[in-house]
Amino acid sequence: MAVKKMTDGSGRWYASFYYKDSFGATHRKKKEGFATKREAKAFEDSFVKQHSGSCNMSFQSLYEQYMQSGKARLREATIRKKAHIFRDKILPTFGDLPVSSITPLMIHEWQTKMMQTDYSQTYLRTINNDLAAIFNFAEKYYGLERNPCRHEPRIGKRDAKVMQFWTVEQYKQAIAVVTDPELHAIYQTLFWTGMRRGECLALTVGDIDCKAKTISISKTRDRRGGKDVITPPKTENSIRTVTMPDQLCEELQAYIKRMYRPAGSDMLFHRSPSNVSTYLGTAADRAGLPRIRLHDLRHSHASMLIEIGFSPLLIAERLGHDSVDTTLRIYAHLYPDKQADVAAKLSALA
């Protein structure tokens, strides 16, 4: 092993050494361009610990390994969200500490600090889950004896207390003040199908089958670095075909006819996500309605289906949820009145 000054006259340092990976195989590593001998030696020590499967590595090194593993398994949007949370909420506290030295008390103090912010309950739960997940990763692959998060109750809540949505009557009031044809078609699609914003904005002309009255959902659109990016949808179950009510089918058919020689691969909508979200708030104000998020049109669709009496299984399939459990977890609070309906109908049969 060697940490030496480079011979090119730059005054910089390099580290050259052998290390064993987690399988016991020996490899050689060399990296140049360090400003000081100390930096070169610190890199060597960190690299050896990181690749030996030892929990003596720094939390920062564990984070790098965790994110590298995640890039092959998670959607890019998920990786970006995790990176943002770790950079701003977790690494400032734990980054320089050896993983094996982090205690339940440290986790408790960090949780207390997070709870003193104005973050929402659902965001607190997300932050806490990300921290617990990286320790699970260390426990599984780097021999960490016990996840220190396991000693502390999770902070935050899985779901928000109040779910906002519009009734059909409220939605009709809002859509009545939307005069732009494209925005009108977007809101109609979101409300009457329950699809996600990115799924709607990724639709192409060929995804609309007006004869069968169906829409094929197979992709999502995201905004990154000022550019639109089309990627696979959130999960495998998100790839689905949903039926359209007559009024939506007729509107999309008329909308497509106004396009100039539309090809099947042409984007159906061109509005940016932020523009679509902003104008929904404007429409709410003009209609004298409480503002809701764009995503709440999806909740509005689900609540409408529940009120009509459709089963959780059908709703899960229509919304592209991973399972019926997901649907019940999100919308369980909308079902209590249905129990009274069951009792009433059973009583009528007696």
Order of helices and strands: EEEHHHHHHHHEEEEEHHHHHH
What is the CA–CA distance across the termini? 86 Å
User: Main β-sheet: number of strands, strand sense, barrel status?
Assistant: 3 strands, antiparallel
Strand arrangement in the largest pleated sheet: 1-2-3
Q: Average pLDDT value?
A: 88
Low-confidence stretches: none
Based on DSSP secondary structure assignment, what is the total number of beta strands? 8
Shape: globular
CA-atom Rg in angstroms: 26 Å
The level of helicity is 40-55%
Number of helices: 14
**β-strand amount:** 5-15%
What structural category characterises the helix and strand content?
Answer: mainly alpha
Description:
There is one protein chain. The protein is mainly α and 350 residues long. 50% of the residues lie in helices and 12% in strands. The chain has a 3-stranded antiparallel β-sheet with strand order 1-2-3, covered by helices on one side. Strand 2 and strand 3 (26-34) form a beta hairpin. Helix 7 (181-193) runs antiparallel to helix 9, helix 7 (181-193) crosses helix 11 and helix 12 (312-319) crosses helix 13 (324-331). The longest helix is centred in the middle third of the chain and has 21 residues, at 121-141. The protein is globular. The model has no long low-confidence stretch (mean pLDDT 88).
